[in-house]
Amino acid sequence: MNKLYKLHEDVETRVNAIRDSQSDWLCRQGCDGCCRRLAEVPKITAKEWDLLQEGLSALPPEQLMEISQKVAELAVQVSRPIVCPMLDRANGACLVYAQRLVACRTFGFYVQRELGLYCKDIETRVTDGALAEVVWGNHDIIDRRLRDLGESRDLTEWFAGWKGTLIEIPVSTYQSGSL
Q1: Would 164 be classed as within a structural domain?
Q2: Does the residue 173 lie in any domain?
């Protein structure tokens, strides 16, 4: 089995365990707070990019054009937070959900060195002690497994070199250090 799919499977097991023990878990379709408040452009591995391209290539041309335009805008955007370019803002859903990034799969369910990687709503529940019994996933292990998948680049950089995109993102954007 491919290392990325094994990682997805392991993450899904942890996510399901948390959801099964918390019937009112906040993370589900329609809850898109994390997608609307990214601190930075996602860094992804080549394996994740390969999978993401499959999902993007299956989209209708007008959706791919819209995503490509949003990614091009991200390449020069300096203000934060940013909105994920693959978010269907009207429905609060990911347009490439089956091919989504590991970061998207783990957010809200994993912690890193006692630092929760979750939204303010979950953070409030943690602070109130409502989630004291949750067995969080270990994000440090996820990070190590991602490093084993090879090179990571910003999403915008992967897009810039992709022939399937309908919008060109100048490579000079990355070489000039404007990102």
Answers
A1: no
A2: no
Q: What residues make up the domain containing 44?
A: 3-158
**pLDDT number for residue 27:** 86
Q: Per-residue pLDDT averaged across 42-48, rounded?
A: 95
The count of structural domains within the chain is 1
Enumerate residues 6+ apart whose C-beta is below 8 A from 2: 47
Mean pLDDT, the chain, integer? 87
Among 34, 38, 48, 45, smallest CA distance to 108 is for: 34
pLDDT at 179: 41
Q: What is the pLDDT of residues 103-145, one digit of tens each?
A: 999 988 988 876 777 788 888 888 999 988 899 899 999 999 9
Enumerate residues 6+ apart whose C-beta is below 8 A from 40: 80, 82
Task: Give yes or no for a contact between 96 and 159, defined as CB atoms under 8 angstroms apart.
Answer: no
Q: How far apart are CA 70 and CA 65, in angstroms?
A: 9
Condensed to tens digits (0 to 9), the pLDDT of residues 86-98 reads 999 988 899 999 9
Calculate the CA dihedral of residues 175, 48, 26, 12 and round it to 10 degrees: -160
13 inside domain: yes
Rounded distance between C-alpha atoms, residue 19 and residue 56, angstroms: 28
Q: Is residue 166 assigned to a domain?
A: no
